[in-house]
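Re: How this chain folds, sequence and tokenised backbone to follow
Notation: Tokens come from a learned vocabulary of local backbone shapes, not from coordinates.
Start of record: The labelled sequence and token lines come straight after this line.
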Amino acid sequence: MSAVRRLAAAWRRRRGGPDPGLTVSCRRAPREGVNVLVTEIDSPAERAGELIEALAAVVAEGVASIALTVGWVGVVPGEEPVLVALAPARDLVAPRFRDALAAGRAHRRPNVWLTLPAGRYLASVVDPYRPFGGGSEEVAAIVRGGGAVHALTSRLGAGPAGVRISLVLYAARPEVRRLLRMARNGLCELPGWRAASHAAPARPRTLLNPRLQR
């Protein structure tokens, strides 16, 4: 987590002032034919490790419930992506997710997680020999075209509280609702999470559609 602490310290030097604490914001950003939910979590650097561990557990639980092969795509700007296929097992997915967010310089790049339809190979969905940016339209096109049932991008960067974790989920609406409920249940015991989930965002944002909160 030393890289996370350095990132947060650099942000505080630029911005000044105390850490505002944990805040969470959600908004819908639908693409054609795909439901997209964007979640941003701002956390003090000293709590980032705890938060990443909790998020890793939630993602691993979601993957286990879906029970499809998981493709992890590590983005290397301007270069060929790193592809790893994982069985939908908690003990495989959780450490990979944790390390993707926290380890070295790579944590600042987007990581893309795909649940692959039965019989589909990761290399047939993401070309291992061409640069892959992991942008929103690029990922949405994979889900829209049936290359993946669900997609999630994760990224960690500097934020007003110290660090910001950005998670973008791509899925059909019923699955967005189900996975959102699972995430809330998995994170509700995290200290401060319940209050943070209802806190006003640091900047004006479109709030989550109430129909997705049921």
About this structure: Confidence is low (pLDDT under 50) at residues 1-19, 198-214. Residues 2-199 form one domain.
